[in-house]
Amino acid sequence: MAQLEINHYTSEMANFPDAGIIKWSLIFSPMTMIFLSLAYLSFVYFIGPQFMKNRQPYSLKTFMQFYNIFQIIANFWLVSNIYIYGRPIAVLWKYCESFDEMVGSNSEKVLQIFLGLLILKIIDYTETIVFVLRKKNNQISFLHVYHHLSTVLYVWVTLKYWIHSHLMVTTLLNCFVHVVMYSYYFLSTFPNLQRRLVPFKKWITRIQMAHILFLTAISLVGFRPSCGNKSAKYFSAMTFLNGTINLLFFFNFYTSYKKSKTA
Asked: Could you report the per-residue pLDDT of 104-119, keeping only the tens digit for each?
């Protein structure tokens, strides 16, 4: 695993490249993110459908079961580690404090956790690829693609340009939601449990919406005139914009789902 170097500094913005914190230059290169984003979109909308055009859908049931187990373990690891080494609860009332002030001597460990979060969000693209290979085109909604793509870019931009301690709260909540979500997905792969789990499906979307709403609302703190942390202001603007867009898409999906069930 690549070694992380912590360069203790006193500026209010912890910028990965400028501060010399990280040597993972490949994953933090804009060209890498552009390539990954274009490769993802190309496979989902062009290469994948063309490849599957004259083929029967793949089952991939066993693969998905192991993938769901991996996601449960990986997200739980991030939740437990950010709680142990970070200060996600304290950040809630110290939103405008700098990253260094909030994490102190645990900076290196917290940065490793954030890197793990970014990598896991890139791995999340696998879910859409599986939908393509299984010809589950109805599940490849604009919401689904936008949510995966925007989450990767959101974490990447935060780490590269506007590192902010509130990412600890985002990591804690988002990964906890994913533990619940992938546990549901794993159990639903067993036919004898599928019918019993149907009533819980709507709650997965509700939990996703609730945690996005909470993170979006908290980001408004960064717009206070008394908040002098520039990285907090940029982070708040990006969080509020991305959160609002995701909420609108999720709400539209949720209302459409409810109408389809009552029709």
From this structure: 888 888 988 999 999 9
